[in-house]
C-alpha cells in the first residue's frame, strides 16, 4: 500500500457554508466546474507527429477508456502546457518523434513517458524496451501506473512539538499552517450537518466534469443508483472518480470540492465506527500495520527525518496493510519508476485504547469487503517515534515508526486547541483564509476571501468583515498591488469605526498598514499622516503599550520624514 490543479484555478467557495453552526444543515448549491479545472491527480497527454494523423483512431479509442486525454501535435506547445501545470502529474505518450525524447526528461511534472508505435519493426535498439505497439497494452500500463501514482499521492502534514499553544493571530510557518488546515477541516466536518440533496449536487457536478467520458458516466450512474451510506468505504477503497477527486482535493486544499464530498466523508466516518464495533475481536489481534510511500529526498529530510518526535497526519483517509511485504512491494514498484526518489516504510503502532468516534479506524471487513487492511479516518494524528535507514535487497528504504495518539494528548492540544475553539468556529472562513496565506497559497486565499465578501453573514457582522478586508489587503500587499491593498485597508478602517471609537488602540495596526501602503506608493505625506495617527492612538491608550510597536512606528516616521526632505 502506498498513495496538483493548474496555476490559474482557484476554489469557487460557497462561502455561506462557513458561517453555519453545528445545528444547521449545510445547503449545497450547484456549480458548473471550470473547463480548465483538474479534479484528478494526473493528466494524460498524447503528442504525435505534426505531419501525420495516423494515430487518430488509437487516440479516440483511448479517450473512450481514460478520462481527460489531451492531444498535441506541436512539441513546443506541449512542453509549454506541461510547464504551466503545478499540482498534477503527467503521463505522456509520444508517437513518431523519438528524437524529442530527451526534451522531456527535465520536466518535474512528468510521471511516466510511453512511446507508442504500432508499426515498430524493432530495428532501433535504443527504444526497443520502451515501445508499446498495442492500444490495449497501453491502456493496461496506464491503468497500473495511475493506480500506483494515486496510492502514492496521499499528502502528509507534519508539525513539531510546541511548548506553547499556537495562536491564530501570529504568523505561522507553512508547516504549522498546513497541519492546522487539515485539523481545522476535520473539526468543521464534525460540526456541520449536510442537506439531504448533497449527494445529488455532487453527482451533477461530476456528470458535468466527465460529460465526454462514457465509462466514467456509467460509474457515476451506478453510484447515483446504488450508493448507500453503509457502502461508503467500498467506494473509497475502489479507485474510481470519487476517491480520485477526494484525494486530489485534499492535496490541493480545494475547499469547495471537499465540501461537495462532505456528505460522503461523514458517512465514511460513521461506517468506520460501525466496522470497528463489528470487528472488535479481530482488531484486538492487530497491533501493527504498514504503509509504503515515496517522496523526494529534500521533502523527506525537511518533513519527516528532521521532525522525529513530532506529529504527522495523512490528509486523506489512510489505508494501511497488515502485510509488510505488500507495503515493501509497493515501494519497490514506485522506485523502479522513480529511482531518484526516497522510499519510506511506515510502521504504524495501533493503540486500541485511544480509539474515539471522532477519529475512528477499522478493519475493512464486512459482507462487501474482505481486506487485510485498516482504514484510518482522514487527518488522524500519529507521533513519529523513530526514523531509521535500512536495506531492502539493494535499495535503501527509510523505516519510520508511527504511533497512534489520543485525540486529547496534551502536547497535541497545545497545537490544535485553536481549531476546537468555539470563537474560531463562529468565524471559520477568515481563519481558513489566513491559513491559506500562511501556507503561501495566496491565489486561493484571495479567491476564498473574495467569496466571503458575498456572504451575508459576514457582511452583516462588522468585525468579521473587517478581518476579511485586512486579509485581502495583506494579500495584495504581498503581490505589490498597492492600490487594491489600500482600498481594502481603507474599507477595513471604515468598517472598524462602526464598532470601535475613533481613538481605540485596536485601530493602530490598520493605520500602520495604511501608512506602509502609502510609503510603498511613494506617497510620503499620507504615509506620515497615518504613522502619526497610529502613534497618537497609542499615547491615548490606557493599557500597557508594546515598546517594540512604538519603536517601529518611530523608525517609520523618521524614515518617511527623511524621504519627504529628500524629495523637496
TrEMBL record:
Check the record and name the InterPro entries matching this protein: TPR-like_helical_dom_sf, TPR_rpt
Sorted keywords for this record are:
TPR repeat
A single Pfam family it belongs to is TPR_12
Keyword check for Transferase, yes or no. Answer: no
Q: What is this protein called?
A: Kinesin light chain
Q: Provide the organism lineage as a comma list.
A: Eukaryota, Metazoa, Spiralia, Gnathifera, Rotifera
**Carries keyword Cytoplasm?**
no
Q: Which organism is it from?
A: Rotaria sordida
Spans of TPR repeats, please give: 508-541
- Which Gene3D superfamilies does the UniProt record give? Tetratricopeptide repeat domain
